[in-house]
Every structure is written in C-alpha cells, then in structure tokens.
Design a protein that fits this description.
This protein is α+β, with helices and mostly antiparallel strands. It has helices at about 5-15, 20-25, 45-55, 125-130, and strands at about 30-35, 40-45, 65-75, 80-90, 95-105, 110-115, 120. It has one domain: Roll (Nuclear Transport Factor 2, Chain: A). Helix content is about 30%, strand content about 45%. Helix 1 runs antiparallel to helix 2. It starts with a helix and ends with a helix. The model has no long low-confidence stretch (mean pLDDT about 90).
C-alpha cells in the first residue's frame, strides 16, 4: 500500500470512529484551505477545528461517517472520498448529507480540501412521508 493511501485510510478511520477533530488535528496542514463547493469556507487548521467544534456543539451526538469509495493518486497527491454523514439536528430531526471530498496532500498533510454536495436531506421528512 502506498504511503498516501495509508494516510487517507487512517484519516477515514478516525472519521468513522467519530473523531473528526482528531482527524483534522492530525492530518490538516497548518495553512489548509477548505472549500464548500465553490467558496473558500475556512483557512488554517485552527479555524477548521474551531468551526468543527461549533458544529459538534449543535448536535446531540457526533455525526456518523460512512465511507463509500476512495481514489488516490500518489503522483499528484490527490485523494477523492465519497461518503455519507448522518446526524441528529438540535431540534431532534435526523439529517443526512452525501458528499464528495477532493483533497490535495503534501507529504502527510492535507493542504486543500473541497467538499461537493447539494444540501442536507431531512430524513425525518422521509420517515414522515412513508406509508
């Protein structure tokens, strides 16, 4: 297994254990840039960690992370993750977001990450609409 593939695997394992803060702290570069679709959302590991802490404070329990697929290009330092995040919102509604993350790695750190998604799905509405 290549070194980049190993780093990506360990990063995902932390997310699957519910340790997003640990994953970011270990694998985000100090000057990481994070994009939400086309917009720069956060710059720097500290800002990313603070943002994640704020999000976690708004939910009843840590989100669950279900990885579906990964692709890694060792030559370019690119990694692609497709996954689903599920969480319970502050109002008790179950929510889901399906995302693709495109990461640029340098050595053992993520220097850029872009999340592609369309929006949240209120799984409570899906449950309410079922027969």
């Amino acid at each position: 297994m290549t070194q980049l593939r190993e780093h990506v695997q360990r990063f995902c394992e932390l997310l699957e254990r519910g340790d997003a803060l640990g994953a970011m702290d270990r694998y985000y570069a100090d000057d990481v840039c994070v994009f939400e679709n086309r917009e720069l959302a956060r710059a720097g590991r500290t800002q990313c960690l603070n943002h994640e802490k704020e999000l976690l404070a708004k939910v009843q329990q840590p989100p669950t992370f279900k990885l579906h697929r990964t692709a890694v290009n060792e030559a370019t330092g690119a990694a692609f993750l497709e996954y689903t995040l599920r969480f319970v919102a502050a109002d008790g509604r179950p929510m889901r977001i399906e995302e693709v993350a495109v990461q640029t790695w340098e050595r053992d750190r993520i220097v850029s990450e872009r999340f592609y998604y369309e929006g949240l799905v209120d799984e409570g509405d899906e449950l309410d609409a079922s027969p």
